# Entry
Amino acid sequence: MPDSHPIPPEAWSALYHASAAFHSTLVSAKVLETIVEHALRAFNADGAAVYRLDPDGRTLVCAATLGACSTAITPLDDVNRAVLSGEFVRIKGDHSLACAPLAADNFIGMLCICPQEAVAGTDEWRLREFADQAASALSHALHYEALQKSDQQRTEFVHVVTHELRSPVVGAQSLLRVLLQGLIGELTPQQQDILNRLSQRMDSLLALINDLLALAAARTRADQPLERLDLTTVARESADTFVYDAKEKAVALNIQGVEHHVPVRATHQGLRRILDNLVGNAVKYTPNGGNVIVEITRKGDQAVIQISDSGIGIPKEALERIGETFFRASNAQSSGIIGTGLGLATVKALIDGFDGVLEITSEVGKGSTFTVYLPLNGIDPTPSA
Amino acid sequence: MAYKILIIDDDPDIALAARLILESAGYQVVEARSSTEGLEAVKREKPNLIVLDVMMETATAGFQTALVLRSPEEDSEYKDYKTVPIIMLTAVHETMPYRFAPDENYLPVDVFLDKPVDAVKLLPAVEKLLTQQHA
# Structure
């Protein structure tokens, strides 16, 4: 602060209000608009403009203007050069022009005003402070917009891949099934065998694509707002899906604790995928005649989903690696059961996204218990019958 | 006379598989490769049932087509086809950001079937809808 020019209280106040206004939004266009509005007012100027540095880093492009200057505010070469080197620029004469660099982490542009009187001393200091606050707000907004764009691009990428990667496999599998079901003529046993093998490979490939996409979606989740869901309803839906698979293996699949609503915050698709993976795995890795229990309870401010099975179990040394991408425990690999090692990685990513916790206990040959804790979303006043 | 089924799908392999399945059960089959072609074919062919893909020209072209066909407007140019049953084929049931489910107000289709197309699922669905329609 310049000693020779005391800062009047109203200048501090104007600076404070301007700074609050700049930082009140994360939309860069709105920040720019606010900067020129406040600059015009704070410096009683005829005109104000913000210039932004082009991506090439060499030219300044007008990003916002307000009012009019009798001295045209244009990124003149000498102004440009001076501002680019971080200098304050002042053009005196019949008409005044003052420009301060906008620099946060890097130089991002400049703020120019055409004051009615030449800028000097205190005003120069004020303009620099003003520009610093403006630069900080603009930089935040630009970073935020870049992050949003990147999230959006990732989501779009996942959607495009969904279609482009699955379509050919799904088309091929559809035609193979037509052949295998003998709809256009009988097959010799050898043809049947070869086509069966092809179809199984296609199933594995499709499962892998689906699991990869589910994992990508679980780690993105950019465009899916969380909603209030009843955990018991989703658990029932999921368990219903596996009734047939369980029956085929004579596995007793029981669901308990679904008499009352248990509200949680999640996406329907994500919550369903967590349950489908855990219940599906329990049925899949439980030998014929075993049992699977899905139980929903509350513990303090947590909703608890426990899926216990009498399945093959997980070796102790593998427990801490469960949830790693592509990891499958040795006994799962040798069981002959198809799996990609992506399901539990997806489950973990989803549970993290819902602020939950996953706990696993297991004993080889006896079974496993997967417990998911999710924050309760309020207490439902009308428990279902 | 055999029932006529219109398949609207831009994937020729899926359309062929669906055609072979339906023809094996004695249905007459006509095809269209886009929702625009499909809407023209509805008027021209007057199908008894429509098998409709979701992602064609756009990610939701199939839904738009179903909405046009089921439009509640009295002067809709498709008002004569409003009750034609629609089976929607989708490979995106689990992977799109929003969940697809038959909803009378928003998604005017009768049945969703996940791809790959399979005779075991497609034929019973077709039979059931045609029986209901012509009961």
